[in-house]
Amino acid sequence: MKKFFFLKWLRNISIARKLYFTVGIMGLLIATELGTMTFAIKTLSSVRAYVGAEGLWSKAEKDAAYTLQKYGRSHNENDYLEYLNFLKVSLGDSKYRMELMKKHPDLHIAREGLLEGRVHPDDIDGAIKLFTRFSNIYYIHKAIVIWAKGDSLMSQLIATGEELHKEITATNSSPERITAILNKIDPINDNLTKLEDEFSYTLGAGSRWLASLILKLLLGIVLTVEICGLSLTIIVSRGIAKGLNEIILSADKIAAGNFRNRAKVFSEDEIGILARSFNDMAEKLERNINALIRSEDNLKISKNFAEQSLSVKEHFLANMSHEIRTPMNAVMGFTTLLEHSNLDERQHEIVHAMKISGQTLMTIINDILDYSKIESGRMVIEQIPFSVRKIFESLQVLLQQKATEKKLTLIFDVDKEIPETLIGDPTRLMQILLNLSDNAVKFTEKGSVEISVTGQNSDDNTVTLQFQVKDTGEGIPEDKFPEIFERFTQVSAETTRKHGGTGLGLSIVKSLVELQNGTISVTSEPGEGSVFSFILTYPKAKPEQEISSLPLKQPPAEHERQLHILLAEDNKINQMLVLHVLKKYGISCDVADNGKIATEKMKEKKYDLILMDIQMPEMDGYDATRIIRNEFKSNIPIVALTAHAMNEEREKCLKLGMNDFISKPFDQKHLYDTIIGLCS
Predict the structure, then answer these.
(1) Angle in degrees, 0-180, between the axes of helices 138-169 and 15-74, rounded to the nearest 10
(2) Secondary-structure percent of the chain, ordered helix, strand, coil, rounded to 5
């Protein structure tokens, strides 16, 4: 009856409780198995330590007897000292044995004895536990008895050694007495040899018995775990599968048009509730099917309208990004050129302010584009090898200047147990960490910002990491926690006035974390600081995917000859900027106002590389590239230099035959490195 009651109880509890119960039982069994394995390993290690100690003991006794005989012949005091040194091993082992045989042994004295017996410190505790736990076992008890006999013989050898030393050092020493004393050593040595042989045989028999016992114990535990786990899993899974199969069969019949069919209910858990809900749904479905058919046309119209609206919005954002990036390229580029020119302190402050303002505007543009991609479901999460440590190194470089300017302490902490190479999207991870860390620096006026990552769970294939960004800044009221991750929302209007921003950053962070099946949370105390935490799970890299095995991109070397390149660009300001930048690096350049002129110039001159804008009048960069690759059959390096920033544009350019893609506003050093790298 109790068995059937248990099965009925297990069938009717919720699936979550079924799983908790199953996992709990399995966890308990596995813990028992692991505990047994740990005990077995430590016990076998202790046996190994005993075997090693026995070898040291036997060797030391033989060496002591041999050295004493040598001393009797040589009368050299150094030989006697060497004999005493060999005795230390045997005396240490004897001290250990005698102390542990007491009713209340002093473990400190026992450890000292083992150390004197030259047992490795890591094996000492195991050896003590083995002695105390198994001293009553036949083999161990017999070995201890033999050990005691050996100690008794060693006492005789010690007495003989003292007698020999006294005779040799005496002023009236007699060779006959010395010979008589030496003759006592061989019988002692012979008896020690017999005892050592018996001790080794007994210890070996005990080791085999213990190994057999542990093997049987482990086998029993493993079989128990496997049988219990398998039985419990079968019972739970069959109960769930039975109810689900009934619902599936009923669903198939309803799909075929039999709306009167109803699913049988077998349990009171979620499957049973689902079956009842399914039956209710079937009743309502028959009544509502005609209404659904009538509304289908309206849904199609709404769907088409929504798709058109989404397309218009994306087209608008792309155009807006392009039109803003084009003049921003000139603003940022000329600002950088000014920053490196001869300016006085006031002028340098003004140029620096212009640069910061430009970077802020680009951050806003990028946030809007990222939010648009996420909202439209077009944000793609890559799965490539990357290193968390490398990301933290790059993050420190990016944040250090801002932190130094505000006199903040930056702390980075990476758990040593995290694998060197994982599989995921390093760009999005860097975006999340940089957004949270940049906010922490922005809202902290004094103290520190700490960025850390620790391993939470790990198995053979995956590892779960918890990232934390902790600051000592303004803090966030608890009632604002639900709002800060909403789009276009900040803690207060004062925050917007003081620090600026669109309020999109944390919304994007939350979306990027959730796109990677992670979770994000925040704890904070106004005036004390905030802690943002998010958890992500990454697959571990296989050996062939390790970053160290990937081909490394070598830094471009300085080009030995004068480079001459062609710039296809219709915007006069951007033409001027690129010419200034290239001149700074000693590169000569011709300019074409559109793709058609660029292809004509290709016929007249030989160039080392082409910088190709995409959107130009008469002929755009796409058509010009097609002509160069297909009609001219030229392999000249072509780099897209464009205000388009969408990933689709990059993929389109590379697929068309361009060698690289640089979006405006561009980094001047990056442009130069790209040119040198392609022309080397």
Answers:
(1) 30
(2) 65, 10, 20
Contact 251, 278 (CB under 8 A): yes
Alpha-carbon distance values, 275 to 232, 265, 270, 499 (Å) = 24, 6, 8, 55
Contact 430, 395 (CB under 8 A): yes
543-600 pLDDT, tens digit per residue, is: 776 664 434 344 455 556 789 999 999 988 888 889 989 998 899 999 999 999 999 9
- Residue 422: beta bridge partners? 386, 540
**Three-class SS state of 412:** strand
pLDDT at 503 over 80: no
Which tens digit of pLDDT belongs to each residue from 134-167? 667 777 777 777 777 777 777 788 888 888 888 8
Q: How far apart are CA 114 and CA 97, in angstroms?
A: 9
Both structure tokens of 501:
């921003």
* CA 145 vs CA 15, 106, 198, 205: distances in Å: 60, 21, 11, 15
CA 268 from centroid of its chain's CA atoms? 42
For position 85, what pLDDT does the model report?
Answer: 84
- How many other C-beta atoms can be found within 10 angstroms of the C-beta atom of residue 452? 16
Buried b (16+ CB within 10 A) or exposed e, 185-217: beebbebbeebbebbbebbeebbeebeeebeee
End-to-end CA distance of the chain: 84
- Sequence-ordered strand ranges (E) for 415-518: 422-424, 448-458, 462-471
| CA pair distance 628, 607, nearest whole angstrom | 12
